[in-house]
Design brief:
binds flavin mononucleotide, two-stranded antiparallel ribbon, single chain, alpha/beta, binds iron/sulfur cluster, TIM Barrel, globular, eight-stranded parallel β-barrel
Length: about 400
């Protein structure tokens, strides 16, 4: 079943393995894909992945990530370079979907050069500067930015767009009562919280013929935030609004070890790449790192480590008829087959396993039964300063 040819949102795919969105840190200074990034995507496509979802691309100037070299798609000058990327992937008959995002509160005003924006000014532990609460007109502006980004994506040859509706970014904050404390027509009731996403989906459908997917955090570990019951209801609404596929994830950047789980916090990488630790004076680091390593084993990490969104994917799948993609800790081909044949999800997607082995899909097809990624999460920290790469359990 895993390697049977099939179709998703009208797109022909060689198998049911999707490369989940992965920020590569390889855009050029304008936010267009660099030649290196295009080569990286072509390499994935050449090696039998069924479909590629790109790393997140910012739809607005004030929605950019603090991580260096994020992709951006808020002006027309980048379209030609994106077209080179889609051409490279299409040479291998693989569809490629652009993930479009607004980082909302999950960035810093210093990184974007203007005050960051959000549905509500809720404190973010990693990015504590104050977010400006969006006005009505600004919300319509952001809806327009998402739609315009999708129009550019279509011109650039993408086969679809995926809204980043999870991991604590702007759309997640609107959907979730934790991030959305508004009392106007964008907050409060369930209908109001879904409004921005529904308007974006409808707007993209009006202006393009692209399939529109969304990635959500079905549970976000925040007090009063997203839980699976409300996520099921949200997904039913989004299907009605025209959404074509849902990828089921969890968590936020604030609890990053939930979205991408690991047995241990990679402390040496935290001290090397994550602010404010990365800027501590060397002497302080010399004392603080061993102390952090000492308490590390007793810091409780989310569990399970494998297949951790499959149960929620299944619950959502039972309530909608559009394809469901499960992501998170999926490593073994036997598990992939069971997820698919058990009707728990229609597709499986992976991020870290493809950072570790970009040719993983081909290897699985040829009989390798498990991804080599050890889920150490060093790749999740290096991106704060450098392009994404596999560090395989140690700072290099
Ligand atoms: C280095 C890195 C970059 C990521 N970039 C994105 C991104 O741009 N968009 C997104 O939705 N998720 C992103 N994620 C999260 C993954 O897509 C995925 O949801 C998570 O890692 C769990 O899947 P896995 O166990 O297969 O890695 C990223 C994760 C890592 C480790
Ligand atoms: S650094 Fe490599 S081995 Fe570790 S989680 Fe990332 S991809 Fe996997």
């Amino acid at each position: 079943m895993l390697f049977d040819k099939t179709v998703i949102s009208g797109l022909e795919v060689k198998n049911r393995i999707i490369r989940s969105a992965t920020h590569d840190g390889l855009a050029d200074e304008n936010g267009a894909p660099s030649d290196k990034l295009i080569d990286k995507y072509e390499h994935l496509a050449k090696n039998e992945v069924g479909c590629i979802i790109t790393g997140y691309a910012a739809v607005s100037r004030n929605g950019v990530s603090p991580y260096p070299r994020m992709m951006k798609i808020y002006d027309d000058s980048v379209i030609d370079k994106y077209k080179e990327l889609t051409d490279a992937v299409h040479r291998h008959s693989v569809p490629v979907v652009l993930q479009i995002a607004h980082c909302g509160r999950q960035t810093s005003s210093k990184a974007i050069g203007v005050q960051k924006v959000a549905p509500s000014n809720v404190l973010h532990a990693f990015y504590p500067d104050k977010a400006k609460e969006l006005t009505d007109a600004e919300i319509y502006g952001i809806i327009n930015d998402f739609v315009s980004a999708a129009v550019r994506a279509e011109k650039a040859g993408f086969d679809g767009v995926q809204l980043h509706g999870g991991h604590g970014y702007l759309l997640h904050d609107f959907l979730s009562p934790y991030g959305n404390r508004r009392k106007d027509s964008w907050g409060g009731s369930f209908e109001n919280r879904c409004r921005i996403v529904e308007l974006i989906i409808k707007g993209i459908k009006e202006k393009t013929s692209l399939p529109v997917w969304i990635k959500i955090s079905a549970e976000d570990n925040r007090k009063g935030g997203m839980n699976i019951d409300s996520s099921v209801e949200i997904c039913k609404r989004l299907e009605k609004a025209g959404c074509d596929a849902i990828e089921v994830s969890c968590g936020t950047v604030q609890d990053g070890m939930n979205t991408m789980r690991s047995k241990l916090m990679p402390m040496d990488a935290v001290f090397k790449y994550r602010e404010p630790c990365a800027s501590f004076p060397a002497l302080l680091n010399k004392i603080a790192l061993p102390a952090a390593n000492l308490i590390n084993p007793v810091i409780k990490q989310p569990s399970p480590l494998e297949n951790f969104n499959v149960e929620n994917a299944e619950k959502i799948k039972k309530n909608v008829s559009i394809p469901i993609i499960a992501v998170g800790g999926i490593h073994k081909s036997e598990d992939m087959e069971n997820i698919l044949s058990g009707g728990k999800a229609d597709f499986v997607s992976m991020c870290r396993p493809f950072i570790c082995e970009p040719d993983l899909a081909k290897k699985l097809k040829n009989g390798q039964n498990e991804a080599k990624c050890i889920m150490c999460n060093y790749c999740g920290l290096v991106i704060e300063k450098e392009p994404t790469r596999c560090l395989y359990g140690r700072v290099k």
